[in-house]
Amino acid sequence: MSEHETNRWRGVGGTALLAGAVGLLSARPSLLLVGVVGVVFAVYPRVFSPPTPDLKLDRRVDNPTPNFGEAVRVTVSLTNVGSKPLFDLRVVDGVPASLVVTDGSPRCGTALRPGETQQFSYSVEATHGTHAFEPTIVVARDPSGAYEVETSVVEETELVCRALPADARLRRHTIDCIGKIATNRGGQGIEFHSSRDYRHGDPLSQFDWKRYARTREETTIEYQVEQSARLVLLVDARRVAYRAPPNRPHGVAYSVAAAEDLLEGLLDAHNDVGLAALGCDDCWLEPGRGPQHRVRARRHLITHETFSAMPHDPDDEPALDEQVDTLLGRLGASTQVILLTPMCDPEITRAARTFEVYGHHVTVISPDVTSDETLGQRLAAMDRQNCIAALRAVGIPVVEWRPSTPLATALSASATEVEP
Amino acid sequence: MTATPTPTAIDVNRRPARLSGAAAVLLAMTALAAVAVLGELDRSGIVWVTLFVEGVGLTLLALGRGLRTKNQGVAGHAVTATGLVVVAVSFGLAVTEPSDVGVRVWLLVGTVAAFLVAVAVVPVVDRWSRRLLKVGASILFVSVLLGGLVSLGPLSTLLVGAVAALLVWDVGEHAIGLGEQLGRTAPTTRVELTHLAASLFVGAVAVAVGLLVSGLGTPTLSFPSFVVLVLAMVLFGIALRN
């Protein structure tokens, strides 16, 4: 709770002095009395002490697990549970940064007697991911508005929009693309890969007995190796990635939502998945699998500081090269990197190339947060296209994701694009 | 899966709150009208005509701004321009029509002040709202003092004029603050009405105190001792502030 003076009555004493002075000089009692008005208004703000808001908040969503694109009605009830009336309350509900308000306003101005409740509602449009509501900010003023007290009321609400009706599409793509190199080898497995001459020491289970019976040739059947991939979802949460088109969520919100979707899909496909972020806080979750790891990773994405809705202080942010160096030290050999970034600056393409050079296969998934209304916006969009082209030129696949479509659509659409 | 069209997010409209903004402009007009009644300035009716013309002009400015916000730029600019012309006409009336020079100056200062207040809370321009409002309210207060100087009249209307000028700042600033923090789409009627009621109540108290003090003074006290009395009150107020 923070309290400060608004100083909105500063200078009102001056009006009293001015009126008094003019009245004195012109010897007009009536003007002197106008000075009295000034005095009354100078005293007015001194009568009150700062308000002490004591509030209870109740937030209801009509559908906590909506489908993508569905409108969700949020109803907020605010009750004054203190013993004093609150004359001037301004309430701003903590809408998650990744959601867009499409109807009504998440803000409300009201006055509440003790025990009274005010209700307001608005609609948000569901996008992918788990969206936790932020604390509601309440600003209370005394009747004259001289003191302002800012506080927040916490009511935990979550909207979960599981984006992918069929994770299979994502998984297939993941194996096609990310697990590609590993599965090109023959060995033990299920699916036929090739057959070759028998070499001493080959397992008997892979010996081709039927062929031996037919032609007396000693051959060994090789099956396709289904190796799971070890990969790290790397979210670009630098300050520059918080760019947003007008009235839309910013790039980090989209990247985090995509990371959530990918996390589920990749873990379902028995991959080792870790989490990392480029940003100010040190965010690292070792690749792993299993239900516990899944829960830990989910929590990490929702609660970790780095993924917060507001950009950080740019001074806290280490240079990108340093962050990349740190990550390179942590990534085990042959760990792949899925880089989620809105690609707002060319630096990130350099980072992607660095990972690639050090032997970590990089796939970039880039939510598009550019728009084309002004010249500057078009220029930024063109910059991004140039970055994407530069990455593709060196063989790094880039999946362009327009956030108005589900991520799975973008992934399957790019599958042909990535692998000709 | 087909692409969903991008939803249109509602704009956070940061313009000053509607109700309080309108109240501020009305109070500005009231301050002028109060002084007009005070000095029997309304004999020719020209003050009322000027105020009416300015009222029409300010309404047009508000309408123009509304149209511009709704992306009807051309119509909005046309209406705004018309509004500005009408306001200019009211300035012209204020300068040319009244026979008395004092009344001319007072009326011009007053109409300009009301115009500035409207520019701040409509707002006609999106910047400097607070500064414009402060200047407008101050000029309005000065115009009330001027009105008191050019012609003596019943004290009560002068008091009402001064109170109205102070309330213009109070209510107008409240509107701007609400606009900044909550925006126009948010429901704010309740907080605006509460604030308006509290301010009007204090204004009424101020008028009552003024009348009470004058009741004390005029019949029995000489002007110097009356001055001392009022001065004492002013100093008392300042002492309380510190």
UniProtKB/TrEMBL annotation, chain A:
InterPro entries: DUF58, Ig-like_fold, OmcB-like_DUF11. This is Conserved repeat domain-containing protein. Residues 195-362 form the DUF58 domain. It comes from the Archaea. Pfam families: DUF11 (PF01345), DUF58 (PF01882). The chain crosses the membrane at residues 12-44. Keywords: Membrane, Transmembrane, Transmembrane helix. Residues 54-117 form the DUF11 domain. The lineage of its organism: Archaea, Methanobacteriati, Methanobacteriota, Stenosarchaea group, Halobacteria.
UniProtKB/TrEMBL annotation, chain B:
The chain crosses the membrane at residues 21-39, 45-63, 75-93, 105-125, 132-149, 193-215, 221-240. Keywords: Membrane, Transmembrane, Transmembrane helix. It comes from the Archaea. This is Uncharacterized protein.
